[in-house]
Design brief:
Largest sheet: 7 strands, mixed
Order of helices and strands: EHEHHHEHEEHEEHHHEHEEHHEEEEHH
Number of strands: 14
Radius of gyration: 23 Å
Length: 504
C-alpha cells in the first residue's frame, strides 16, 4: 500500500483528532453557517474534506476497534459497548494485528490521550501507546488525574446546574440530556485533554519528533464530546442563538412503514417530551459543545505550529459516528441506520496540500490504511484503502462506488446491514421490515419505499449487490439475506456444515 509518490522526504508525524458522536452539520466546512468552528474549518481549508465518509458501525467500541485493527466489526468481534453488553466479547481476540503494532515496527513513537473505549480492561498501553486508560463512554469527571489537575490549577470541582432531563410517558424523570457546568472553560474536561495532548506534543518534539534525524510520532487525542449529555460551561451553553438553528426535515418523522423498534426507541428516549423550540435550544447547546471542542483543537494546532511541526505532520480529524440529537424523533444512536449517525466528518491535511472537497465513499477504516501508508508499513490486512491518493487529487481506479455498514445492537442485540450508493439506500432488518430510501427524492429518509412497485427492481439490485459484498467479506449475515430475500439460486453460496460432510 505504500507509495513513494505520497511521501515527502522523512516520514511524517501523524496527529489524529477524534470526537465522539459528532454530526457533520455541526461544522462550517460541511455547510453550517453559524461560524462557530473556525479552527476545524481552517484545517479543512488546507486539507481534504471528505463529503461521503462513513463509520463501519454507529457504536463507539466496535467503530474504535475497527479503526485500531483495520477490520470490519463482524471480523474483530467487539460488537457492543461493554456498558450495554448483551453477551458479546469485551476485548479484542489475542493476536489481532493493529495499526499501532505496524507503526511501532516502523520506528514510530505512539501516544494516546483521551477516550479509549476499545476494550474493558486493556487500555492504550496494552497496544503500545503511551497514555492513560480512560475507560467508559463519557467524560470521567471523577478520574484522579483530572481532579488532581483541577486542584493543581486552582480550578473549582466539577458540578452541574440547570440539568435538563427527558420526561417519560408516565411523568417520571428520564435521561439527562444537558446542563451547565459550574466551571470556566479552562477547567473543563476538554481543556484537560487538550493540555495533556499539548504536553505530549512538546515531549515528542523535544525528543526530535519530525526532524530528519528524530523519531517520528503518532499522537491521537480522542475527545469524549460532543456525546450527550451536553455538560458545558455557560459561555458555550449559550454561545449559539437557537433562532439560527434549522431543525432537520426528519423532525417530521412518523415511523409509518418503518421497523417498530424505531418508535420504541423514540419512546425509550422520550424524544417527544421536548417542544420544537426546546429542541432548537438543545441543538444550539450541542453546537456550542462542538465549538468548545473546536477551541481546544485550535489550542493543540497552535502548539503544533509553534513547535515547527506543521510542515512535517499529517493532521486528521474525524468522529467515531454521528448522533440523532432529535432527528427522526430519536436521540443518541441505535437501531436505525440513518445518515445522521452513519455519516461522519473526515478531514485530512497533509503538508503541502491545498483545500479541496472529495465525494468518494470513504470509511473510518481508510484512516487506518492511511496511517500505514504514511509510516511505510504493510497494510495488506486492512479492509480500508489509503486516503492519500484522493487527498492528492489523483484519479484512483476501482474505488468503491457504495458503502456497506453493519450494526449488531446497542442496549440489546439487533442485527442490521446497510448498503448506500449516491442515490439510494437499502437496509436489511431481520427483526423488522426492510427499508429502502430514494435519497435524491427523499434526502431526509422519511419515506420507506421498499414495497412500492416502482422501486421493485432497484430494491432487488441493491439487495443482490449487498449479498455479493457480504459473501466476499465472509459476513454470515449473507445467509439470512439469501433466505429472506430474492437472491437467485444461481448466485447463492450455501455453506456446508461439518455434519453434512459425513453424509454420502
Amino acid at each position: 500500500m505504500s507509495s513513494a509518490s505520497h511521501q515527502t522526504g522523512a516520514r511524517q508525524n501523524i496527529l489524529f483528532l477524534m470526537t465522539d458522536q459528532q454530526r457533520i452539520d455541526t461544522l462550517g466546512c460541511y455547510g453550517n453557517t453559524a461560524g462557530h468552528t473556525p479552527h476545524l474549518d481552517a484545517l479543512a481549508a488546507r486539507g481534504t474534506t471528505f463529503d461521503r465518509a462513513y463509520t463501519p458501525t454507529a457504536i463507539c467500541t466496535p467503530a474504535r476497534a475497527s479503526l485500531l485493527t483495520g477490520l470490519q466489526p463482524f471480523e474483530h468481534g467487539l460488537l457492543a459497548n461493554y456498558e450495554w453488553n448483551s453477551g458479546h466479547r469485551e476485548e479484542l481476540p489475542d493476536g489481532v494485528p493493529t495499526f499501532s503494532g505496524a507503526l511501532a515496527g516502523q520506528g514510530y513513537r505512539l501516544g494516546h490521550v483521551g477516550k479509549w473505549h476499545v476494550g474493558r480492561h486493556r487500555g492504550p498501553d496494552f497496544y503500545g501507546f503511551e497514555g492513560e486508560h480512560l475507560a467508559g463512554a463519557l467524560n470521567v469527571f471523577d478520574h484522579p488525574d483530572y481532579t488532581a489537575w483541577l486542584a493543581e490549577n486552582g480550578f473549582p470541582e466539577f458540578s452541574i446546574s440547570e440539568p435538563i432531563y427527558t420526561t417519560r410517558g408516565d411523568g417520571s424523570q428520564g435521561h439527562l440530556i444537558a446542563g451547565v457546568t459550574d466551571q470556566p472553560t479552562e477547567a473543563s474536561f476538554e481543556a484537560y485533554l487538550a493540555d495533556s495532548t499539548i504536553a505530549k506534543l512538546r515531549e515528542f518534539a523535544a525528543d526530535g519528533g519530525g526532524t530528519a534525524d528524530g523519531q517520528p510520532f503518532f499522537l491521537s487525542c480522542h475527545i469524549f464530546g460532543p456525546h450527550l449529555p451536553y455538560l458545558i460551561p455557560r459561555k458555550w451553553y449559550d454561545l449559539v442563538d437557537p433562532a439560527v438553528v434549522e431543525l432537520p426535515g426528519s423532525f417530521a418523522e412518523t415511523f409509518n412503514g418503518k421497523p417498530l423498534v424505531q418508535q420504541t426507541y423514540a419512546d425509550y428516549w422520550s424524544t417527544d417530551c421536548f417542544s420544537t423550540e426546546e429542541w432548537k435550544k438543545l441543538t444550539a447547546v450541542y453546537w456550542g459543545y462542538v465549538s468548545m471542542i473546536d477551541f481546544q483543537i485550535g489550542r493543540i494546532l497552535a502548539v503544533l505550529q509553534e513547535l515547527g511541526l506543521t510542515d512535517s505532520t499529517a493532521v486528521m480529524f474525524t468522529a467515531d459516528h454521528g448522533e440523532f440529537t432529535g432527528a427522526h424523533r430519536l436521540n443518541d444512536k441505535g437501531p436505525a441506520m440513518y445518515e445522521d449517525i452513519y455519516r461522519i466528518p473526515a478531514i485530512l491535511a497533509v503538508p503541502g496540500a491545498t483545500g479541496r472537497h472529495d465525494d468518494h465513499f470513504v470509511s473510518l477504516l481508510d484512516f487506518t490504511a492511511t496511517f500505514c501508508e504514511i509510516a511505510g508499513a504493510d497494510a495488506s490486512g486492512i479492509r480500508g484503502r489509503s486516503l492519500l491518493p484522493l487527498a492528492a487529487g489523483e484519479a484512483v481506479e476501482d474505488w468503491r462506488e457504495d458503502i456497506l455498514c453493519e450494526f449488531h445492537g446497542h442496549h440489546f442485540p439487533y442485527a442490521q446491514r446497510m448498503l448506500r450508493n449516491k442515490s439510494v439506500k437499502y437496509i436489511a432488518n431481520p427483526e423488522g421490515i426492510d427499508e429502502f430510501y430514494d435519497l435524491l427524492a427523499d434526502p431526509h429518509e422519511l419515506n420507506n419505499v421498499v414495497d412500492v412497485p416502482a422501486y421493485r427492481n432497484h430494491v432487488a439490485t441493491m439487495r443482490r449487490t449487498m449479498y455479493r459484498q457480504l459473501v466476499a467479506r465472509g459476513d454470515k449475515f449473507a445467509q439470512w439475506l439469501a433466505f429472506a430475500g430474492d437472491i437467485p439460486e444461481a448466485e447463492r453460496v450455501r455453506p456446508v456444515t461439518a455434519v453434512e460432510r459425513f453424509i454420502s
